[in-house]
Design brief:
Blueprint lengths: L2 H15 L4 E4 L1 H7 L8 E4 L3 H8 L2 E3 L7 E5 L2 E7 L5 H5 L10 E2 L5 E2 L4 H7 L1 E2 L5 H7 L3 H12 L2 E2 L1 H10 L7 H11 L6 H11 L25 H9 L3 H6 L4 H13 L7 H7 L1 H9 L10 H6 L13 H4 L7 H13 L6 H19 L1
Helix pairs in contact: 7-9, 11-13, 11-15, 13-15, 18-19
């Protein structure tokens, strides 16, 4: 038993001495049944947040959902949620999957009304009640089912699988919650076969959410697990609307859009690689067709004479010599000059910049 679980049982017993019941629930119970160390520990309680605050001195509210709050013990945070219903069995009946519908009480006894222990042993995914109602309580559970298939190696039973297929077309959820599930799914995809399973499952979801089977034509280049950027590129294909729907921020969407276009123009010149940036280039390289040969973005980027605009030998006062409307073009011209073999020295760049401006002026007249 790790330190976090021991601390959680101490909390449960302290609360019990004051007249309230509390239980360890969810993933911590499932992980224990699987013989794994729980990553975190969630608690359900019959006491109020005010009661916990009196006992432990401090709580921190987690958003507004279900009045969930954090309590701390020995430096470990524990998420505490009020009991739903009058008994722990009522609360467990509302859980997503049978493997998660068990609890430990303060005496470390397992409360398992729906057969979680057996489900874990059989690596079976099922609902503790009606699967349709279970999914409809939180549609994000459709994505969670995919994650449990991949990350835990569990297999949905026939009833759960049929319900998933029937309801998936109506999926919708807050973008930030979808993005969180996608991020949790990524490190579990460690083979082409598992990536194909993601494509197969998400094909039942509406268009913004599914992984197109077309993307799998490049699978033989994949070095699993994919990076976060390559993963987002695989789902969004550089489409900003899809990126928004999947909860990716503006910076990620812009980087992915560049990477999506760059896939079509490989191999890249030094100037093209510089404009693209190492981050976007690396993501694009992860998804290039195998017939493009070996891709060594890091090596090529390391050999560039400049990696960032700030590497130019020009000073701010040098750029200020030119009209404001021309400064951006001047800097870009100097970057191109250096990337194509020009000397990155202040005097050389100033001379080149003045020559370029002179030519531009001549063209105007």
């Amino acid at each position: 038993m790790n330190a976090a679980v021991s601390s959680a049982f101490n909390l449960l017993n302290t609360v019990k001495k004051s007249g309230w019941d509390s239980w360890i629930v969810g993933g911590a119970v499932r992980d224990t049944l699987m013989g794994k160390e729980p990553a975190d520990v969630d608690i359900v309680t019959s006491a109020t947040e005010a009661d916990w605050r009196k006992l432990f001195g401090r709580t921190v509210r987690v958003g507004q959902r279900y009045d969930t709050f954090l309590v701390f013990s020995n430096g470990n945070p524990f998420e505490v949620t009020p009991l739903k219903g009058t008994r722990i069995e009522d609360d467990l009946a509302l859980r997503d999957f049978t493997c998660n519908a068990a609890a430990f009480d303060a005496g470390k006894a397992l409360i398992d009304p729906f057969g979680a222990e057996r489900a874990v042993k059989e690596k079976r995914l099922s609902a503790p009640g009606d699967p349709e109602r279970m999914f409809q309580r939180d549609m994000l559970r459709l994505f969670r089912m995919i994650r449990f298939e991949l990350c835990l190696g569990f297999t949905p039973d026939n009833r759960l699988d049929k319900t998933f297929r029937a309801l998936a077309g109506g999926f919708d959820a807050a973008p930030e919650r979808v993005q969180k599930e996608l991020s949790a799914l990524r490190p579990c995809v460690v083979s082409s076969a598992l990536l194909e399973l993601v494509a197969e499952r998400t094909a039942f979801l509406p268009e913004p959410y599914h992984l197109s089977p077309d993307s799998l034509i490049h699978k033989h280049r994949f070095d699993f697990p994919l990076s976060e950027l390559a993963w987002s590129l695989l789902f969004t294909e550089g489409n900003d609307r899809k990126g928004r729907k999947l909860g990716y921020g503006r910076r990620v969407r812009k980087t992915v859009a560049r990477a999506s276009k760059a896939k079509l123009t490989y191999p890249w010149s030094d100037e093209a690689l510089y404009r693209l940036g190492e981050e976007a280039a690396s993501a694009a390289a992860e998804l290039l067709p195998v017939n493009k040969g070996p891709v060594r973005v890091a090596e090529q980027f390391a050999q560039l004479p400049i990696k960032h605009r700030r590497d130019l030998a020009l000073l701010g006062e040098d750029i200020a010599l030119f009209p404001a409307s021309e400064r951006k073009n001047i800097v870009e011209a100097c970057e191109k000059f250096v990337l194509n073999g020009g000397t990155n020295e202040r005097e050389s760049l100033l001379r080149y910049a003045k020559e370029r401006r002179k030519k531009w002026e001549q063209k105007k007249h």
